[in-house]
Amino acid sequence: HLTQPEPDPLDSSVRISLSDDSVIEPVKTPLPVTVTHASDEKQSDPGVTESTDPPSSVEQVAAEMINEDTFGIPEIPPLPGQNFTPNPQGIELEDVINSVYQSYPLLEAALYSRDVASGERLETLGEFDRKLKAGTENGPMGYYKTYRQHIGVIQPLYQGGEVFAGYRVGRGSFQPWYLERQTNEGGEFKAGFSVPLSRNRDIDARRAALWRSTFGVQAVEPDIQAQLISFVQEGTYAYWDWVAAGAKLVIADRILKLAEDRTDRIRSQVENGFLDPPELTDNLRLVAERSGRRAFAERKLQQTAVKLSLYLRDANGAPMIPGPELLPPFPELDAVDAERVAYDAQLALEQRPEIEAINLLQRQLDIDHSEAQNDTLPSVDLIMAASQDVGYPTSPKNDKGPFELDALLLVEVPIERRKARGKMQSVSGKISQLSAKRKLTEEKIVAEVEFAYAGLIGAYKQAQQAEQAVDYAEDLARRERRNFEEGLSDLLKVTLREQYAVESAEKAVDAKLLYFQEQADYRAALAEDRVPEPIPE
After folding, report:
1. Pairwise CA distance, residues 428 & 433, whole Å
2. Does residue 343 form part of some domain?
3. How many CB atoms lie within 10 A of CB 419?
4. Is the residue at 332 inside a domain?
5. CB 3.0 to 4.6 Å from 372: which of 25, 264, 351, 424, for a disulfide?
6. Which pLDDT score is estimated for 9?
7. Residue pair 165/151 in contact by the 8 Å Cβ criterion
8. Which domain holds residue 291?
9. Does 402 reside within a domain?
10. Position with higher pLDDT, 480 vs 100
11. What does the mean pLDDT of the chain come to?
12. Is residue 154 part of a domain?
């Protein structure tokens, strides 16, 4: 049999179900805000055609109630000027992660599941509440006039069984076959207990529910951690998207400035007859085209900043859209240690919330199995009760006056025991399923670590090669511009070389973005983010 020490009544519980996905994705569908008055609900008539209008019991929130003061709508910062450069002292990734820990609303909602768990466990503790019982039964009319009142208290025991005590008084003229209902003038005091000797001795339905909910308390934490890992990963992605957008804006600025700086020089050469007028027109076209590309980069920067504001919040928890003055450059890429993947895979198996959730679910199934085994045992209950009447005797024999002691032994034996055997078979099947799922989950965790590790190494090499390509492309572009200034080249070749340099620079930005995204995936695979410990009340 499975026995557990008496748990602390202050604990809380929740139950989580396992899925094949390692992370529980929160639902992000916007919901209409409504107010419902239950007192106004009316029963619908099946004979009346249902109206498409909303019922009167549902009040739509007025649009004027939704204002900037209510929701703290952040302002979009102004666009950066030309010659924009990132700020090395700008926002760091840790600032975003700390903001997720402190202020992200969905994490706050996940933490409230602890309260849900506390309520569920408190509900199971209610099975051990003391119960006060009282009643009055009177028959004032008829040949036999009887008046009976009683009051008592019952205390269920955590070890099984219960104790009880009470007082009753029965007066009047009782039927001869109901004389035990009569008491002496002062009434009767009674106390006793019942104890299970076989079934329900080590475990019963009340204790099983309490133990399951107690393990459910701990099961809340891996559920919260899985959501936290997802939130940090999403916030990290949003941060690096913003940094990458700023890097591409710098590229757009630089390439635009090159075209603008050439305009006056080409115009002077055209006026002096050294170049044909179409050369100036082509360069002006190039300026307009690159201005459009800069506008696109500005839009992308603002959009990524707005997305980042969902995770980056101020001290009051309100979204904060970072301005371009807070934009940092990409940091240096760290080389990947090729020897750590085996250690990290083992670390992930110890830290990932899926494994802890499976362990706790296993404990709950063990309780179910023990409860089913308990149901196969015969029910043998010992009941003892002592009673004493007080006051003036109500019968000449004073048969109510002596102290009375009753002892009962109740036995009930299930013959086929099909209910218990069926439950044991069902629980055993669930345990086998869980064992198979644990094996696959462990294999998936190791595969995710190795997958993220391979992606991180590949992204690092890709970023290194992309940086070399940028150096080569910019060197060729500089040579072509110098040849153009010396009259040894034309604008078309210069434009092509500069375009190649821009493409190489943007590919280098994309490669760095991929590297840091792979870093975020690796962090998530290792489950480095831990749930903040609950503050004791």
Report:
1. 9
2. yes
3. 12
4. yes
5. 424
6. 36
7. no
8. 71-124+207-364+426-526
9. yes
10. 100
11. 84
12. yes
The per-residue pLDDT for range 360-419, each reduced to its tens digit, is: 999 999 999 999 999 999 999 999 999 999 998 888 888 888 999 999 999 999 888 999
Q: Tell me the average pLDDT across 96-118.
A: 94
Q: In the prediction, which pLDDT does 366 show?
A: 96
Q: Give residues with Cβ within 8 angstroms of 172, minimum separation 6.
A: 139, 144, 145, 146, 147, 182
**Cα–Cα distance list, 220 to 141, 216, 217, 360, 524 (Å):** 60, 6, 6, 10, 19
Task: Give me the amino acid identity at 142.
Answer: G
**What distance in Å separates the CA atoms of residue 87 and residue 349, rounded to the nearest whole number?**
39
Residue 529 to residue 511: CA distance in whole angstroms = 25
Q: What is the pTM of this model?
A: 0.77
Q: Compute φ and ψ for 386, nearest 5 degrees.
A: -120, 140
Q: Are residues 320 and 344 in the same domain?
A: yes
Clarify whether residues 408 and 447 are in a common domain.
no
Which of 271, 256, 274 has its CA nearest to residue 484? Answer: 274
Residues in the chain, overall count: 537
Identity of the residue numbered 508: A
- Distances in whole angstroms, Cα of residue 256 to Cα of each of 48, 285, 430, 483: 69, 11, 65, 20
Q: What are phi and psi of 132, to 5 degrees?
A: -100, 125
CB 229 within 8 A of CB 524: yes
Alpha carbon dihedral 321, 323, 328, 330, in 10-degree steps, equals 60
